[in-house]
Specification:
By secondary structure, the protein is α/β, with parallel strands linked by helices. It is built from 11 helices and 10 strands. The strands form 2 sheets. The protein has a 7-stranded mixed sheet.
């Protein structure tokens, strides 16, 4: 999930009788306004801003306030609740409040466990028919994780299992980074940890851009999805392996339980879930079995 700038329709406030002066001075959230904003964001997507993160929420909302030339946070919240273009602005709000730090092959031990342990295990099961293998990158950001999985499967799995059909899908709440993922064009920052063999084989460098191989790009599909939306997750195809790293840290306990339960329900029987290295399911779910791999752990659906 990488931040980017988007442009709204001209005069987005023209249909409202807001009084604003277009002040560009930084605003401060009052205690009451902070509580209202925290609840609004929490109800939308489950992200919870602790009391000590008030300054962080201020700085991120400030971007939209300045762009729209609204005088204060209270008017911006009213805008999000009442303006005819509020759904478009919600997308930009998600873009402003989410952090996107990712690059190719970021969690190498998890990828090694996927191709070296989990997929062979799934393929060996008599009831797995291995006609289709589905892998979900649930916090896909700009697509580096999903494309890393696709490259490793193309290199190490598909030659061994020529009859295997692979479906990799990536989702994120931030529409801007999903657009980046779909384009498959990356900067040097994203490829800094890419093994040379993959960089040479699966990327074309044009100027300062690294363009993913069309064959790999076709292996992955992307869509905008709010992990807090249980109904949206229920209609997704079931996955055999789900990667959801560095998402739970933004939720409170109740939201974590809700999201993890949705991830669990989406998994096929004996499927696997990977989360971030600083995250744990302790106190969140007892439905998974903890499985140790070389240099990492995974959670297996019971």
């Amino acid at each position: 999930m990488l931040n980017s700038t988007a442009t709204l329709h001209p005069n987005p406030l023209s249909k409202l009788n807001f009084s604003f002066g277009g002040s560009q001075q930084d605003q401060k959230l009052s205690p009451q306004s902070f509580i209202e904003w925290r609840k609004y964001i929490y109800d939308l997507c489950g992200i919870y801003f602790q009391d000590n993160k008030k300054y962080l929420l201020e700085s991120r909302l400030q971007k939209r306030i300045k762009h729209l030339k609204i005088d204060n946070f209270e008017l911006y919240l009213q805008y999000l609740k009442t303006n005819p273009r509020r759904e478009e602005e919600k997308k930009l709000l998600f873009e402003a409040i989410t952090i996107n730090e990712t690059y190719f092959f970021r969690n190498q031990p998890q990828l090694d466990a996927l191709v070296g342990n989990i997929i062979p295990e799934l393929m060996a099961k008599k009831n797995f028919g291995f006609q289709k293998l589905r892998i979900w990158s649930a916090a896909a950001s700009s697509g580096e994780e999903a494309y890393s999985i696709a490259m490793m499967l193309n290199e190490m799995i598909l030659p061994k299992y020529p009859n295997l059909s692979v479906e990799i899908f990536g989702t994120d709440i931030n529409f801007a980074v999903i657009e980046t993922a779909q384009k498959g064009v990356f900067k040097e920052y994203s490829i800094r940890n890419t093994p040379p063999i993959y960089l040479k084989k699966y990327f074309q460098k044009i100027d300062n851009n690294y363009i993913i191989d069309p064959k790999i790009q076709k292996m992955v599909s992307f869509k905008v999805l709010n992990l807090y939306d249980e109904a949206a997750i229920r209609i997704l195809n079931k996955s055999d392996v789900t990667f959801c790293a560095n998402v739970l840290i933004y939720f409170d306990q109740e939201s974590k339980i809700k999201v993890v339960n949705s991830l669990y329900n989406n998994l096929n029987p004996e499927g696997y879930l990977f989360i971030g290295y600083s995250e744990t399911l302790h106190g969140i779910s007892k439905a998974f079995k903890l499985v140790s791999f070389s240099k990492t752990i995974g959670y297996k659906k019971g």
